[in-house]
Amino acid sequence: MRRLWAVLAAATALAVAATCQASSNSARWGKDYLPNVQVVDQEHRSLKFYDDVIKDKIVVISFVYTSCKNICPLVIARLAEVQRMLGEAAGQDVFFVSVSIDPIPDTPEKLKQYAQAFAITSGWTFLTGNPEDIDLIRYKLGERSGNVIVQHKNEVLLYNDKTGEWARDSGFSDHTTLVAAIRAMDPAWRQQKRDNTASLEHAIGTGMADVSGQALFIKGCAGCHTIGQGDKVGPDLKGVTVRRQRDWITNYIMQPEQMRAAKDPIAIELGERYSTINMPNLGLSVSDAADLLSYLDAQTLALYPSKTGEAADPTGDHTLPP
């Protein structure tokens, strides 16, 4: 399935990039448009927004504030996964920039703690500064919500300063599609993909199988959770269908905010233990939840092969997290 997603993502990215390229005008943007105001990053470095952060780079720009417990941490978690998927390109060909929309309380110390909570190391700059300068950056980049704390969007901006090409995407886009859209901001990458168009079309035509539960996990869960690789900003989901009642899991992933409001003890305990982000409502249906649980079942059982080659029952394995 991942091969199919990669094919579709690359094809989509090429189409988006073609639109961007057709409408690009580097003279219209760049230093003549973007503010070159003073900003401060999470390492207390004083920077010029255009000269030091944007100039000659491909950047992925997001707007956040550290006290947000809903959209912001989910977007950052997903972008952190995208950064990891970019591999060596992250920090070399592609740079991530997150601008605080609540700059007074978002000190460099808070921004650094925020980055560390998502295991972000290099290639990603978190910025704060004077409110008037941040407002100017927001306005120029199209973040013009009236009440930014309440109304700010989950959009991310993709920009190549060398070519003047812009694109908008969602922080909730499929990871593979977003990676391809980011890489497509590079004309050299696009040309390479065009050279492989015939093989891409062939791959799409072969009708590779899709697994709904896996698709749901990658799209909605992988930014915050692993299965058997340890906690991220949310708990490791290895064995979750063994540890918890299925009805409870179904209700929680469909209506987490209602369970917190009802003071469900497990939901409250999870919220306290993983306080960086509240489990969001992803709009899953009953059938979606069932597909997701089936995928978690299969992945958990795959981690416990018996000596006979068949999946072992994980209920007796004491290495399962609580």
Structure keywords:
seven-stranded mixed beta sheet; globular; disordered N terminus; 7 strands; 322 residues; single chain; 12% strand; alpha/beta
Architecture blueprint of SSEs:
Layout: H1 2-23, E1 38-41, E2 46-48, H2 49-54, E3 58-64, H3 71-86, E4 94-100, H4 108-117, E5 124-128, H5 131-140, H6 148-151, E6 155-160, E7 165-170, H7 175-183, H8 187-195, H9 197-205, H10 212-221, H11 240-243, H12 246-254, H13 256-261, H14 265-273, H15 286-302
Parallel strand pairs: 3-4, 4-5
Antiparallel strand pairs: 1-2, 1-5, 3-6, 6-7
Helix pairs in contact: 1-7, 1-9, 3-7, 10-15, 12-15
What does this structure look like?
By secondary structure, this protein is of the alpha/beta class. The protein is 47% helix and 12% strand. It is globular and about 60 Å long. It starts with a helix and ends in a 20-residue tail after the last helix.
